[in-house]
Amino acid sequence: MRVGVFDSGVGGLSVVKSLLEHKLFEEIIYFGDTARVPYGVKDQNTIIRYSLEALEFFKNFEIDLLITACNTVSAYALSEMRLHSDCDVIGVVEPGVLALKNAIPDTDADILILGTKATVKSQAYEKGLQELGYHNLSAIATTLLVPIVEEGLYEGEILQSTLHHYFKDLPKIPDAIILGCTHFPLVADAIHNYFEGQSTLIHSGEAIVEYLESHYDFTKRFEHTELKFFASENPEGLRKTAREWLGENI
Ligand code: DGL
Fold first, then answer.
1. Can you tell me the distance from the alpha carbon of 36 to that of 239, in angstroms, rounded to the nearest whole number?
2. Which of 5, 8, 113, 186 is the pocket-test mutation for ligand 1 (most atoms within 8 Å of CB)?
3. How many CA atoms lie within 13 A of 143 on its CB side?
4. What domains lie within the chain, and their CATH numbers?
5. pLDDT value at position 68?
């Protein structure tokens, strides 16, 4: 199966990492809209327009499935993309909600949702979780973590003071934290340690693998996946990040 993976920038590489670990696809075509990242501070119309343009890009490749490895796109543009796509389009929000349910069945659990400004504003996670009965929900737009990850500051003082800035007023340690932005898994260890290892973290990449394995037939696994990386700006920069994050011969 040939799959397209779309993100506003490099964040979706964290989803690609999970797809590769599970050997799900023969070929992955990645497109990061690096010229226009971040999407998370843009309005709905702009996010939809950019996402439909990305869909046009993928039409050159005859993909069998498109994964929008961006929570912001998943929260705002999924239904529009599905209307205009010849193949299935899967977002990361619904898989994230289902992964949370599998990990923490107790609907009284305290759930903290982290995302971009746009994702938090959409309340996409809250809607999905409330339908399942979860009611102790809070959300923080941890926007600064996006450029911090883009800068490769996965540990250290800047990251620690940013986490403190966002989390210092929380009344208690949450039972679970949804990493509702595909950049955030890169700082998952720091978030986990900040909460003394007591919160279960939900990661879009692992969530989508769980979702794909329960919705599609993956009897065949691929020891080698052909990877193609495209970006709307500085594709070599994207490939460099891919080499660092995926540790593959790219
Ligand atoms: N990777 C995007 C997401 O998951 C966040 C980055 C952005 O703001 O474009 O929401």
1. 17
2. 8
3. 12
4. 2-91+206-246 (3.40.50.1860), 93-204 (3.40.50.1860)
5. 98
Q: Which ligand 1 atom minimizes the distance to the CA of 92? A: 4
Residue whose pair of structure tokens reads 């009611």 in the numeric block: 135
Catalytic-residue membership of 87: no
User: In angstroms, what is the span from residue 122 Cα to ligand 1's centroid?
Assistant: 13
pLDDT of residue 152: 87
Q: Is 40 near ligand 1, meaning CB less than 6 Å away?
A: yes
Give the DSSP per-residue string, 187-228.
GHHHHHHHTTT-SEEEEHHHHHHHHHHHHS---S--SS-EEE
Residue pair 150/215 in contact (Cβ under 8 Å)? The answer is no
Question: Is 181 assigned a catalytic role?
Answer: yes
206-240 tens-digit pLDDT: 999 999 999 999 888 999 999 999 999 999 999 99
Q: How close is the Cα of 70 to the center of ligand 1, in Å?
A: 5
